[in-house]
Amino acid sequence: MLVMLIFIVAVQLLAISLIPAFSASGNRIFEDPESTANPFIYILLIIGFTMVLLIAMKLEKGWLVSGFIQLSVAATIFYILTSFMDIFLSLILTLAFLLLLRFYPEWYIIDIIGILICAGISSLFGISMTALPAFILLVILAIYDAISVYKTRHMVTLAEGVIDIKAPLLFVVPRKGGYSFRKERMKLGGEGRGAYFLGLGDAIIPTILAVSANWSVPAPALFILGLNLPALGAMFGTWIGFGALLMTSRDKPQAGLPFLNGGTVLGFLAGCAMAGVRPF
User: Fold this and answer.
1) CA-to-CA distance for 263 and 243, rounded, in angstroms?
2) Which residues, 6+ apart, have CB-to-CB distance to 213 below 8 Å?
3) In this predicted model, what pLDDT tens digit does every residue of 126-182 receive, in sequence order?
4) DSSP readout, 19-38?
5) Do residues 244 and 263 touch, judged by C-beta distance below 8 A?
6) What is the spatial distance between Cα 234 and Cα 7, in angstroms, rounded to a whole number?
7) Nearest-5° angle of CA 91, CA 94, CA 100?
8) Are 27 and 80 within 8 A, CB to CB?
9) DSSP state, residue 277
10) pLDDT tens digits, residue range 193-215?
């Protein structure tokens, strides 16, 4: 559990550090960062992505699911890398990552690439939305995550399918030495499960608000990595939310975003209050 928290912190710090590079490159997901339509576009993309994967799983087209995910991951990595280097070198590194995921999807490979992907996506979406759209996004996705895990359970089905095809959409932390993610076949609720799993979205979504707060909220920067109080509050809130998540049962799948997003939102508002600024 401590390792998972370290992953989240690493994603947050790396995402914050990427803000200058992405801002300088001019890469943004949305043309108007202040538009409140942005979070709904994001949610539609998530729902569409999820539906495609679930339909392919239902049709037992594992190769299609795997190919679609790996293509999406490759496109994401390539888009992120082009903000820092030329297209040719970005393409070479993207292919190298893709080959690793395809032929040796061990847990530490999945985790390293997962941290890089999460930081890049969080930073890109964070600089593409001001605080209000990002705030709305976290609230809606917290509700959506709870419904998809506890009510419809389609997110549980998706996660189990992701484990079976070794897709890089989860952080994997072994319970004990000698564990191999490549051989993992247990269901998420199975007693013989060899590792703990955390969806990449659980690191990405809360970090979006932290990144957004750091550049869009008019609060003075602190000496810590140039963070302002609203962003720092959002980060601390995420950690507290993760602690609350640990209080739930670890033997069955849990919706992470209600806890993580809830803590992030409250921490963000507390940070704004301490800085004496109005966030919206």
Assistant:
1) 10
2) 131, 134, 228, 230, 231, 233, 234, 268, 271, 279
3) 999 999 999 999 999 999 999 999 998 888 888 877 777 777 788 999 988 888 887
4) HHHHHHHT--S-S-TT-TTH
5) yes
6) 16
7) 140
8) no
9) -
10) 688 888 899 999 999 999 999 99
